[in-house]
Amino acid sequence: MAWEETDKALAELLRKLPQAAVLITFLAIAAIFTYVANRNPELFKSDPPFWEASTQQTTQKRQTPAKQTSAQDTRESQKDFPPPPPILKASDHINDGKYHLLLCATGSVATIKLPSIISALSTHKNLSIRVLLTPSACEFLQSQSPEQPSLASISRLPNVDGLYLDSDEWRKPWVRGDSILHIELRRWADLMVIAPLSANALAKIALGMSDSMVYSVARAWDTTGMIDGARPGIRLPYAAEIEGVKDARKKGIVVAPAMNTAMWNHPVTKRHLDVLEGEWNVRNGGWVEVLRPIDKGLACGDKGGVVRETEAEGYVAIDRR
Fold first, then answer.
1. DSSP 3-state assignment of 49?
2. Which parts of the sequence belong to the Flavoprotein domain (predicted)?
3. 251 lies in the same domain as 197
């Protein structure tokens, strides 16, 4: 009987231990508050009390947006930047009689040649250009030198009807029924040109990534030619040149790689180019044309670097489309 009574007593003690632990913890906290109040009475006389102020600061940190550090993050980072373009609806431009060029730039030093391309194309009065930039491309266009104009000045060049940043995709919280900007840009464009195409951009497009609006448009491109047909009176870029080639009536994407020589010679670059120049090539019934770069001195100081000659052969290649 003694052992049974002992077991019962131990079981009862173990059952009450959690309650006792809670009580002891509560008493300990009360004792700490009493001690602190006696030693630092001013803490409890503040308005609001220190524990409420701490809660308010935490809430404010959660609600305050992160500091914007890039030209891509905010249009207000450049004081003369115009308001964002109106919400684009491709269906509103079907019969405007203009050729639609979606001109994109990615993170290469050759981005500074973008104004030259636009100016060279300004002789075409029936051309509508919408410019689309990746965050890294924006970093080259912040008025830091005469050949690196601001985004504002680019938006005012002839034929430019809109300049888009990644932030424009989420200008307001999306709800069902709203248009999706990268889809509307794809529908709107008769031709997409990515000049320059950096090594990073080449890899992302070849691998189907879409973490920026440029890549989202490329990823959502009508590769079958069955969704986005030719608009009334507008000839698709490759329809006449490649007669007899299956699926030649697709909208096209022209890319102009520009990168350091070591990057260009890297085996992974060849692998990515094989995708664009091989199975995706317009000559093979695809939708991509690659404008290979030429050897030239680089901004990084390397000799024999590989860049695209945007001011001459590059823009001529775009112009003939």
1. coil
2. 100-276
3. yes
Q: Which residues are catalytic?
A: 182, 300
> Using CB atoms within 10 A of its CB, is residue 289 exposed (0-12), middle (13-18) or buried (19+)?
buried
User: What are residue 203's phi and psi, to 5 degrees?
Assistant: -65, -45
CATH number of the domain within which 297 lies: 3.40.50.1950
One domain for residues 300 and 223: yes
In terms of Cα–Cα distance, which of 266, 288, 268, 263 is closest to 278? 288
Residues 6+ apart with CB under 8 A from 251: 189, 190, 191, 192, 221, 222, 225, 228, 236, 237, 287
Q: Within a domain: residue 102?
A: yes
pLDDT of residue 43: 60
pTM comes to: 0.72
Q: How many other β-carbons are positioned within 10 Å of the β-carbon of residue 93?
A: 17
Q: Return the SS3 of 316.
A: helix
Q: Using CA of residue 220, residue 102, residue 292, residue 113, what is the dihedral sign? A: negative
Residues 125 and 47 placed together within one structural domain of the fold = no
Residue type, 229: G
Domain-located, residue 111: yes
Residues 178, 300 within the same domain: yes
Q: How far apart are CA 79 and CA 65, in angstroms?
A: 20
With respect to residue 65, please indicate whether it lies within any of the assigned structural domains.
Answer: no
Look at residues 17, 161, 195, 9 and name the one whose alpha carbon lies nearest to residue 90: 161
Residue 57 lies in a domain: no
Mean pLDDT by 10 residues, the chain (321 residues): 64 66 74 74 60 54 46 53 84 95 94 92 93 94 85 93 94 89 97 96 97 97 91 80 58 93 94 96 92 70 47 52 59
At a CB cut-off of 8 Å and minimum separation 6, what does 170 contact? none
Confidence (pLDDT) at 192 = 97
| Domain span at 309 | 92-319
Total count of domains within the chain: 2
**Angstrom distance (rounded) from CA 264 to CA 260:** 6
